[in-house]
Write a structure and sequence with these properties.
single chain, about 800 residues, alpha+beta, nine-stranded mixed sheet, five-stranded mixed sheet, 28 strands, disordered N terminus
Length: about 800
């Protein structure tokens, strides 16, 4: 066996021209390589092979800068255009094909279409000739956004003519909050914010390009711009009837700067012609025909495959492994031991160290690593965790002082005057992303640059990670974005990119395609934190709450500890206190199709059902009255949502025995007067006598705010999230034993089947007078509380711990 020292990032800094202006690479735990057979090729040979390859991807980074756009159907990453761009977002070809660059990642939520619509609305191009393409994270590292685009127009959330209230944060070197003054601004795909944060500057990009096209045509014809109109990629001179196409005038426009871009304005919703209409997703044709390229599909000449195995207990590392036991297996090239990824690159989360086996094929790599003897170094304190003792710790945390996030009136005194006290404790389990495409990335590291192909919800962060791991400046890191087969929070918030970069950095010059197994994907990503909540209310003689004490608990670092309860109660109660409590576990936690509302709205809406039942009142009218008594600025919008959902569902009309309706409010941001998203749903549920639950129908009332960019995409989001949260309600949970995740593949982590989807979903939109805070998550959380209340109505059993499927739901 041969052994070779690792490529440490510091070994290459002097060769890269790097000026030392970014954080030092982590070098205290070197990557260890053990080799069998190797087939290194140098970069010149690699590029020459690629350029001559037939039927392989012709990848833009090694072609001349004037190379034609994507030559293989389904590839979507950035390439240098054959014609000059009008601006950084828009390229118009001579045949009027309009390429619109997309800075967020398409994973089924519709940004490939909605982002393009926001640009095209202002550009006034022919929508049938629009082709999206991912923006360049490398250019984003090298170029800044125009100064005149940095200020958000208008007067905030309630100004229909403005840009709303983007929340991409201050400049952030690693891109966690976005980098607002870099070329493509916020490239992160999270927090349901792609439309909310990007709308104004994407509209500005389209408007600026349109004005430059008009200026170029006016100069060509020696006429005032005021005499020209632009529509469907054609510019017309009103006086003479002369016409030119965008494709014909685009080269002139590319050389025609706007003299006063700060005067450019964006359309308000009452002026939209494309935005606000239902448009089919532009990515669907390539997906249904199998042409779409995901990260898992990337192939490069000379590429090797890496299979990974990490310590199954978070925080664990490799003590030793025996490469000799597998080095002579077919195709095996070498093994790489890598450390626990630097928490500075994983938002402070602690994952595990591990080993990768590199081989000629994926099957060979996986077969070898499954046979590789590995001894783990597991911290005993982490190995001691179980679901039972973690739940006990959370319940104990509720009794300790927490962070008080709302305190109104005198809660303790009001409880002494209660006619009746109602209290309940609820719990939610750890939940993974369980995405369809396992974690993967293809990486080529040389001494001068890094090339990465992957689906990634935060390419600015990945760019930073690559620079820190390899010592190569961010300006020489190229992230080639692919479509993503599920993510639900920075591609699962796991270190798939960091793993692949460390492995490829240890064997520079060879492209490495790292692909996690399904089991690795389950433990390689973060989890929605396990949570508990205790809610206690004092009711007066008429059953109305006069005091409420709410306590929630999740582990330290869990996302959204304040959601749904902070600032003030959404339902009227004169004496109100809310505190959140934490404890420390070793499971890395993060966002998962939401921040905190998913669990907290289950707690809140379940408790409102319990209060209504205790008061002997109708749950819909009980909620309605309590909303009407509040001073919340959007209370009428919430009441409207409840009223519409109740009317749609036939609330109060008879149902067959074994069937029940339940209603719930969903809101994000309703505690203030800023951006918000409000909806209500009625779920009609049946339960057979042998305990089989069926979601028969869902009636949805959802606000539009000032306007929805693509209402069809919003409908799809709602329908998808109904299924998502039905799974959370009925089936899904991850348990901990000996510090390990037990459910790590779909045979033990069930997904609902198509026959469980509700056969009827009705969605009705209603207008409101503010901009929405987002649509990508926290819709349909009400499935959880509604099924719970339906179970109570039908079986008499009040269940407070998810998922319901683990309980006996039979009834006589």
């Amino acid at each position: 066996m041969t052994s070779r020292g690792p490529h440490r990032p510091t070994d290459y800094q002097s060769q890269s021209g790097f000026d030392g202006d970014f954080p030092a690479a982590r070098t205290e735990r070197p990557v260890e390589i053990r080799e069998g057979r190797t087939t290194n090729i140098d970069r010149r040979e690699f590029l020459a092979t690629i350029a001559a390859a037939q039927g392989a991807f012709v990848l833009g980074f090694w072609l001349p800068s004037r190379a034609d756009a994507q030559t293989k159907p389904g590839t979507v990453w950035y390439e240098e255009p054959a014609t000059r761009e009008v601006n950084a977002w828009i390229v118009i070809a001579p045949d009027d094909l309009v390429t619109i660059r997309i800075a967020q990642t398409e994973l089924g939520q519709g940004v490939w279409t909605s982002n393009a619509m926001m640009v095209a609305e202002e550009l006034q191009c022919d929508w049938s000739k629009v082709r999206p393409q991912y923006a360049s994270a490398n250019r984003d590292a090298r170029e800044k956004a125009p100064e005149w685009t940095l200020n958000v127009p208008g007067n905030g959330a309630q100004d229909p003519k403005g840009g709303g209230v983007p929340t991409f944060g201050n400049r952030d070197r690693v891109g966690v909050s976005g980098i607002p003054d870099s070329l493509y601004r916020r490239m992160r795909t999270n927090a349901a914010s792609s439309v909310k944060d990007g709308r104004y500057y994407l509209q500005l990009a389209g408007a600026e390009a349109r004005e430059r096209l008009l200026l170029a045509a006016a100069a060509m014809w020696s006429v005032p711009v005021s005499q020209l109109t632009a529509k469907n990629s054609v510019i017309t001179h009103a006086g003479s009837g002369r016409k030119t196409t965008y494709g014909a005038i685009a080269p002139r426009a590319a050389e025609t700067p706007h003299p006063h871009p700060e005067t450019i304005t964006i359309k308000s919703p009452d002026q939209w012609t494309l935005m606000g209409t239902e448009q089919k997703n532009l990515d669907v044709p390539s997906k249904v025909t199998g042409q779409a390229i995901y990260g898992i599909d990337v192939r490069l000449p000379g590429m090797k495959w890496a299979a990974v195995k990490t310590c199954p207990v978070y925080g664990g590392d490799v003590k030793r492994y025996d490469f000799e036991a597998i080095r002579h297996l077919p195709g095996v090239q070498f093994a790489v031991q890598f450390p626990i990824p630097d928490p500075a690159l994983t938002r402070g989360r602690i994952f595990s160290g591990g080993v990768a086996v590199i081989a000629d094929t994926w099957y060979q790599a996986k077969t070898a690593i499954d046979k590789l003897p590995i001894e783990w170094d597991i911290p005993p304190v982490n190995a001691a965790f179980t679901s039972a003792n973690m739940r006990g710790s959370l319940l104990a945390a509720l009794d300790r002082p927490g962070t008080v996030r709302a305190s109104q009136g005198d809660v303790d005194a009001a409880f002494t005057n209660a006619t009746r006290i109602v209290e309940a404790t609820y719990s939610t389990p750890f939940l993974p992303r369980a995405r369809m495409e396992p974690g993967n990335a293809t990486v080529l590291v040389t001494n001068e640059r890094v090339d990465i192909w992957l689906g990634d919800q935060s390419p600015q962060e990945t760019r930073f990670s690559a620079s820190r791991i390899t010592g190569i400046p961010e300006t020489n890191v190229h992230v080639h974005l692919c479509h993503l087969g599920g993510g639900f929070g920075r591609n699962g918030n796991g270190p798939q990119a960091e793993h692949a970069i460390m492995i490829a950095n240890a064997h520079r010059g060879t492209p490495i395609h790292m692909l996690w197994t399904r089991e690795e994907d389950f433990i390689g990503t973060t989890y929605r934190a396990m949570g508990v909540a205790h809610l206690k209310a004092a009711l007066d003689a008429d059953g109305w709450p006069i005091a409420m004490d709410v306590r929630t608990a999740m582990q330290e670092g869990g996302f959204g500890p304040e959601a749904s309860f902070h600032v003030t109660s959404r339902y009227h109660v004169p004496n109100y206190r809310y505190s959140n409590h934490t404890t420390n576990f070793h499971i890395p936690v993060g966002t998962r199709r939401g921040v905190g509302q998913a669990a907290h709205e289950f707690y809140r809406e379940s408790f409102m059902d319990e209060l209504a039942r205790a008061a002997g009142k109708d749950p819909y009218r009980y909620r309605r009255e309590l909303l009407a008594r509040t001073n919340l600025p959007y209370k009428q919008d919430m009441i409207t949502a409840l009223d519409i959902a109740a009317e749609m569902s036939g609330w109060g009309t008879p149902l067959p025995k074994g069937t029940a309706r339940a209603i719930a409010l969903e809101e994000r941001g309703a505690e203030g007067d800023g951006m918000a998203t409000i909806s209500a749903m009625v779920h009609t549920v049946s339960i057979s006598r042998d305990g089989k639950v069926k979601l028969e129908r869902v009636d949805v009332a959802h606000e539009t705010g000032f306007g929805l960019v693509n209402p069809l995409s919003v409908k799809k989001q709602i329908e998808g999230q109904i299924t998502w949260f039905y799974n959370d309600a009925m089936h899904q949970a991850c348990t901990i034993k000996d510090g390990r995740i037990v459910e790590n593949n779909f045979h033990v982590f069930p997904l609902s089947r198509i026959n469980e989807d509700p056969p009827v979903i009705n969605i009705r939109f209603f207008p409101t007078k503010h901009w929405l805070v987002g649509m990508g998550h926290d819709r349909a959380t009400s499935v959880q509380s509604a099924i719970g209340d339906a179970i109570f109505q039908i079986t008499g059993k009040r269940l407070r711990d998810l998922p319901y499927g683990k309980h006996d739901l039979r009834w006589a």
